[in-house]
Design goal:
Layout (H helix, E strand, L loop, with lengths): L5 E4 L3 H12 L4 E4 L7 H4 L3 E2 L10 H25 L10 E5 L2 H16 L5 E3 L1 H7 L9 E5 L3 E2 L2 H15 L2 E3 L3 E7 L2 E7 L4 E3 L2 E4 L20 E11 L10 E6 L2 E7 L4 E5 L13 H14 L7 E12 L6 E4 L5 E5 L9 H16 L26
Parallel strand pairs: 1-2, 1-12, 2-8, 4-14, 12-19
Antiparallel strand pairs: 3-7, 4-6, 5-6, 9-10, 10-11, 13-16, 13-17, 14-15, 15-16, 18-19
């Protein structure tokens, strides 16, 4: 078969990072996306929060998140070195705080869960929280500090990955995919809306929530990804005003939120979690509730300049874990369903995709390493065992 070794359908951070890594290993790679980096990647806050995003019953996902978090400093250094782009990476840690006593009880339950798993977090009293973060409201009832949960600017990350792909010779096609193409039970590439057909040894489906309705694939091969709406605000404090020293996460009267401060003074506040389908509307109610809850924790935000409100669509899976690996058809790879952890999982996903592609090029079927077996996309398509 003539053509590239890999066609990547989708140019978000997952698709771009996978393309970059695959090309570094010698593969010929094409990425197809009409606006690379302008989907969920553009709306994201960029928290690398393996510990504060830990949830009960998601221990396998936690292990993957921690692996990727550990890879992030090296990934950042390499990407900044080859492109000259500053990713605005901050390693100051994350402070999670509770607004009232009910919120404190909920946060302490999360802290106990973290301690059972041996995660790096420290419980702080109310006074200790305010000494660490003086801009917090005086009503804060306590919190926990996670030094290993960092942040990066996703928009800068997009720019750096696009440049890295260009530098190594990844071909970027600014078009939409009309359909994935097949021959029998094998995926053979993609056809663009502009008419170009791309034959490839492997096709990576990395189109976020849109992966679930990719034309050309039989229903059984489509990854079950749904859009989960998240509305997010971007603010800026007046020149000379003090800024929070850390990423601040909070439970405020039962509602979870975060405030992420960029090195240039931009403040990102979010985010809602709405099962609204493919709805990208920014609503007054969401803006109101985000500001209301955030200023209860950081009152100085009421003086911030409003910059932007956006709505992104996170790609959620049935078990909230990503699908990374061989698809249901030969020639198909999947990297979708990253949900809350898309930016965090960039290094690990790119490593997996490049490894699978390299294995496939050697003539053996792509096979996931044991540490990633729980995220096999085919887990949702397997028939139940006989009784």
């Amino acid at each position: 078969m003539s053509g590239p070794d890999l066609v990547v359908v989708g140019g978000g951070v997952i698709g771009l990072a996978s393309a970059w890594r695959a090309r570094q290993q010698g593969a010929e790679v094409v990425v197809v996306d009409p606006e690379p980096g302008h989907g969920a990647s553009w709306a994201a806050a960029g928290m690398l929060a393996a510990v504060t995003e830990a949830h009960f019953g998601e221990e396998s996902l936690l292990a993957l998140n921690r692996r990727s978090a550990e890879a992030w400093p090296g990934f950042r250094d390499e990407l900044e070195s080859v492109t000259g782009h500053d990713l605005a990476y901050r390693g100051d840690g994350t402070l999670a705080v509770a607004y009232d006593t009910g919120d404190r009880d909920a946060l302490q339950e999360l802290y106990r869960f973290q301690q059972e798993l041996g995660l790096g977090s420290t419980w702080l009293g109310a006074g200790e929280c305010r000494r660490l973060e003086p801009l917090l409201a005086t009503v804060i009832r306590g919190g926990l500090f996670v030094p290993g949960d960092h942040q990066v600017d996703p928009r800068r990350l997009v720019g750096a990955l696009l440049e890295a792909c260009r530098l190594v010779g990844v071909r970027l096609v600014p078009d939409a995919v009309a359909s994935v193409t097949t021959a029998g039970d094998r995926v053979t590439g993609a056809r663009c809306e502009g008419g170009e057909s791309l034959l490839a040894g492997q096709t990576l489906l990395a189109a976020g929530w849109q992966s679930a309705a990719m034309p050309g694939l039989p229903e059984a091969a489509l990854p079950p990804v749904r859009p989960v709406k998240g509305q997010i605000l971007r603010l800026r404090m007046p020149a000379g005003w003090p800024l929070p020293r850390h990423t601040v996460r909070a439970i405020s009267q039962g509602t979870s939120l975060y405030v992420v401060v960029r090195p240039d003074g931009e403040i990102v506040c979010g985010a809602t979690v709405e099962e609204m389908g493919a709805d990208r509307r920014v609503t007054g109610g969401a803006i109101y509730s985000l500001l209301r809850d955030a200023q209860l924790v950081l009152p100085m935000l009421l003086e911030a300049e409003f910059l932007e409100a956006t709505a992104g669509l996170r790609p959620g899976s049935p078990d909230n874990a990503p699908m990374i690996g061989p698809g249901a058809l030969e020639g198909l790879l999947v990297a979708a369903g990253h949900y809350r952890n898309g930016i965090l999982l960039v290094p690990a996903t790119a490593e997996l995709v490049a490894g699978l592609l390299q294995g496939g090029r050697s003539g053996s079927p792509p096979e996931l390493p044991s540490w990633a077996a729980a995220f096999d996309p085919r887990r949702f398509h397997r028939a139940p065992a006989a009784a």
